[in-house]
Amino acid sequence: MADDHKLILASRVEHTPVFDEEGSLIGHVRDLSIDRTSGQVVYAILSFGGFLGIGKRLHPLPWDILSYNEKQHGYVVGLGKADLASAPHYDADELEGFGGEQHARKHRDIFEYYGTFGPPPI
Amino acid sequence: MADDHKLILASRVEHTPVFDEEGSLIGHVRDLSIDRTSGQVVYAILSFGGFLGIGKRLHPLPWDILSYNEKQHGYVVGLGKADLASAPHYDADELEGFGGEQHARKHRDIFEYYGTFGPPPI
């Protein structure tokens, strides 16, 4: 509780830039996916793409793989563009409905994909 | 994990109406205050006021005191307008800086105020 700036507003997390492990800008946080009951942020939704011949896509990233970097004023993920290009992504309608019946399978897909890159889910 | 609609987008929580225990609309969720490290939503920021001679104010509500009501399509808090009128509130600049040095005291103020109304903080 004595840490400086321990809390951040969701409205500020949205629009925060996200950089890859080489320091290149790969996208921005578009939204957050929150567990209704516990209030735990499960995913940051990364708006990614517009390069490598990929259009803009929405990638749910497990919250734990984001690391805030003061110098870059943004989040760093330990992934390169190629890793993200192969990552699970969804369209806006699917993300609106996230957490529904099929969520268990998508949740496993996402955490298994990122498991090799970051901490395992709690 | 098998629950329907277990997850909600932050962009949808923002703008969700909030009703008091009598079913009257008291405001809307303006923003969420999130612990940077854990990703836990600590407060929902309620935009409250415009009646009882009170201008619009921003009230951090502990996440746990919000209860989603399907019929009303919004959150219900077990508080009346008078209780909220006396509750800790902050201006937008203060909320931007929430979680800084003085946060420990404000956090205690907020949770002590709402402690009598809802579950104790984790």
TrEMBL record, chains A, B:
InterPro entries per record: PRC-brl_dom, PRC_barrel-like_sf
Gene3D superfamilies to which the protein is assigned, alphabetical: PRC-barrel domain
Domain PRC-barrel: 8-77
Superkingdom of this protein's organism: Bacteria
Name of the protein described by the UniProt record: PRC-barrel domain containing protein
Organism, scientific name: Croceicoccus ponticola
